[in-house]
Amino acid sequence: MSDRDHAARAIRTLHTERWPDIVDGYTLGAYGTMAGYEGFERTLTDDRTSAGDGLRYLLLAGVAARIAGDETTAHNRALQARLVATDYRRDADPLAAAACEEWIGHCQVVAGNDEKASAAYDRASEAYAAASVEDPAGATTEPLLQAGTDLLTQLSRPDDDAWDDIHGDGSDALARRVRFARARLPSYLDARERAGHLHAPRGSTEYGNDSYECPDCGANDINHVVNTVLCLRCDAVIES
Q1: Total Cβ atoms within 10 A of residue 128
Q2: How far, in Å, are 42, 129, 137 from residue 133 at the CA level?
Q3: Disulfide check for 61: which of 27, 70, 94, 167 has CB 3.0–4.6 Å away?
C-alpha cells in the first residue's frame, strides 16, 4: 500500500481527531478506489479495486463527519454512496445486487433516514433469499460483502465484533448479516459519536509487546495496519 493512499493516511490520522482531514482522506480514498487509482501510485490500472471498498470509505467519511457534528457532509457522503450502490445494482448478478440493497441500508443509517434504511434492509433480505446461494458463508467473502463486513467490524471497535458475531455459524449468514446490521449499525454510530472517536480497522494485533510503547497513552498493545504500527487502544502512530 502506497504512502500516498488517501484512505491509509486517513487511518493514520484517526488518533489526532482532525476530522476535516479524516473526512477528506476517506472521501478521496473512495474516489481513487472507484476510479482504479488507489493503491497503485496514482497510475491507472486494469487491476481495479472493489466498488465495495469505495462505498466503505464514503460511509467512513460520513461517520467521521457525524462525529465532527457536520451533518450536511455526513448526509452528502451517505448520499454519494447510495447513488453508487444504486447504479452498481443495475448490472450486478443477484448476489451482488442484494449486497447493493444492504449497502443502501447502511447509507440510509449514516444519513439518519431510519424508515428508508429499514425498507432497504427488507429489500436486501428478500434479494438474498431470492438469490438462492448454495454457500452463504462463502458468499460473504465476495468483495461487496467483505467490504460490508469490514465496515461493521471497524465501527464496532473497541468492542471488536467479528465475522462470527455478524454471521453466526454461517448457515444463514446472508440473512443474519442483514439482521445484525439493522440492529447494530445505529448503535455503533451513536457510540462513536458519544466517544468522539473513530477507531482504526483491526489488523494483526499483539498484546503486551514490550518492544513498543504508545507515545500518547503508554500502552504496549499494538495494531499492525496500513503498513503502520498503531496503538490498539488510542490509535496513535507508534511506528510507520
Answers
A1: 27
A2: 37, 8, 9
A3: 27
Helices 173-195 and 51-67: crossing angle in degrees, nearest 10, is 30
As a whole number of angstroms, the distance between CA 167 and CA 23 comes to 29
Angstrom CA distances, 131 to 86, 94, 220, stand at 18, 5, 46
Place of cell 448457515: 171
pTM exceeds cut of 0.85: yes
Reduce the DSSP state of residue 113 to 3 states and report it.
Answer: coil
Contacts of 6 (CB under 8 A, 6+ apart): 24, 25, 26, 27, 28, 29, 32, 38
Give the length of the chain.
Answer: 240
> Could you read off the pLDDT of 79-111 as tens digits, one per residue?
999 999 999 999 899 999 999 999 999 999 999
49 or 17, greater pLDDT: 17
16 in helix, strand or coil?
Answer: helix
- Grid cell in block for residue 145: 460483502
What lies within 8 Å, CB to CB, of 183 at 6+ separation is none
Hunting for cell 444519513 — which residue is that?
Answer: 111
Alpha carbon distance 212, 206 (integer Å): 10
Question: How far is it, in rounded angstroms, from Cα 52 to Cα 7?
Answer: 14
As a whole number of Å, the CA-based R_g of the chain is 17
pLDDT digits (tens, 9 = 90+) for 167-201: 999 999 999 999 999 999 999 999 999 999 999 99
Cα 170 to chain centroid, rounded = 21
Kind and range of the H or E run holding 237? strand 237-239
User: Which residue matches cell numbers 473526512?
Assistant: 23
